[in-house]
Amino acid sequence: MRNSVRCPKCDGQSILHASGIEDRSTHAKDAVLSIKGDEPFTVFGSWSHVGVIEAYICENCGFTEWYTRDPDKIPHGETVRRLKTKPRKGYR
Fold this sequence. Notes:
Elements lengths: L14 E4 L3 E2 L7 E2 L20 E6 L5 E5 L24
Antiparallel strand pairs: 1-4, 2-3, 4-5
C-alpha cells in the first residue's frame, strides 16, 4: 500500500498514512513506537527513536500495513538480530 496507494485486500484507493504511532501505555507517556536496541543510541544515555514504526491504513476495510523507517540504521545486538536464509537448492 505504501507504494501502490491501493489496498491489496479490498482494492480500496483511499489510504491513510500514520507517520508516527504512539505508545499510550501507563509506563510511557506519548512515546513513539520504535525499535529498542541493547544500549542507548545517544551519548547522553537517553533513548533516541531509531526504526520508528509507521502505518498505512485502508479507509475502506481497515487493513493495515506496518513499516519500519530507516531499517539500515537499527543497531544489531542481543535485542535485534539479523536472520538470514540459505540459498535454496535447485532454485533458478
